[in-house]
Design goal:
CATH class: Alpha Beta
Oligomer: single chain
Strand content: 15-25%
CATH topology: Rossmann fold
Radius of gyration: 18 Å
Structural class: alpha/beta
Shape: globular
Number of domains: 1
Strand order of the largest sheet: 1-2-4-3-5-6-9-10
Helix content: 25-40%
Number of strands: 10
Length: about 300
């Protein structure tokens, strides 16, 4: 039986984050544990079924919300200060530290979705992660989106979002059907990025986070989907160039490969993934990536 345990995670700067540890009731210790990084503006609760699946296989899994989002949202979001660097350095760093303190001898796996794959590597203690699983990774640059989405997304992210955010004091994404509301600082940072450059001159914290990504050495499984309009192949490759020292297994699937009509950016986490996709992630976590590259498990992708 899976017991979801609500936990309080202290970010590296002292901010209190809400997390949930999913584990089997009978699990006293574990050889492998996982921390899950959500996509930007997506509540950790969205990934609950996948976390439960991993826990059922004997891998305690920690999910958490970044500051200002979901369970880590303050009573009043207007005037709340947060940056993308805070999410990566302090929040992700705090989640990794919490997991390490509670499982001092276990192998740590970092799992991330969407732009959460970028935040994961920027944590100051990301070297604690023995391997990574990156699902639909990209950097959030609109120029990498599917051509049909580039203009509407550019209008939304760089026109509507900053204008509305300055008036409201945060970006009310829920009102637009775009996931969780975003703190003002996060929304304006996102809106200001109109080029592939992630850390313009003078952005010392952003550059430090990217340096951590470049220095990270670990095995990594990267999964993307041909019908993903956000994490296109160019977007995924842009993200992977930020991690030159990963030992990467990159798998790109099309829906017909899995007998599906559509997968897109979020389809991996639908319940159907339990039989077709999730076991392959499990196989990677339980076995060394370099061995898995040559195994039938990878050939099946």
């Amino acid at each position: 039986m899976i017991v979801p345990r609500v936990v309080c995670i202290t970010a590296l700067d002292g901010y209190s984050l809400k997390g949930t540890l999913f584990l089997e009731e009978s699990t006293a210790s574990a050889d492998r544990v996982a921390v899950f990084n959500a996509g930007a503006g997506i509540s950790a609760s969205y990934y609950r079924p996948f976390a439960i699946y991993l826990a059922e296989q004997g891998i305690p899994t920690l999910t958490y919300d970044y500051r200002g989002v979901g369970g880590s949202r303050p009573p009043k979001l207007r005037g709340f200060r947060a940056s993308i660097e805070d999410w990566s350095e302090f929040d992700c760093g705090g989640a990794i530290r919490w997991l390490r303190e509670n499982y001092p001898r276990a192998e740590l796996t970092g799992i991330a979705h969407s732009v959460g794959t970028l935040l994961l590597g920027g944590a100051p203690n990301s070297s604690e992660l023995r391997n990574l699983v990156m699902i639909c990774p990209h950097t959030g640059y609109y120029g990498d989106y599917h051509p049909k989405l580039r203009i509407p997304m550019a209008m939304l992210w760089h026109g509507i979002m900053p204008a509305v955010s300055r008036v409201v004091g945060y970006f009310p994404a829920r009102a637009f059907g775009l996931g969780e509301d975003l703190p003002l600082g996060i929304a304006l940072q996102w809106a200001a990025r109109r080029t592939p450059e992630l850390a313009p001159h003078g952005h010392t914290r952003a550059r430090a986070a990217l340096d951590k990504c470049r220095a990270l050495t670990a095995d990594a499984l990267v999964i993307s989907f041909a019908d993903d309009a956000f994490a296109t192949e160019s977007g995924t490759m842009r993200l992977l160039r930020l991690y030159p020292n990963l030992r990467t297994t990159y798998v790109r699937l099309s829906p017909p490969d899995l007998g599906a009509k559509h997968i897109g950016h979020f389809g991996f986490f639908r319940p159907e993934g339990r039989s077709g996709l999730w076991p392959r992630i499990l196989a990677y976590i339980l076995r060394d990536c370099r061995t898995l590259v040559h195994s039938s498990a990878v050939a099946a992708f």
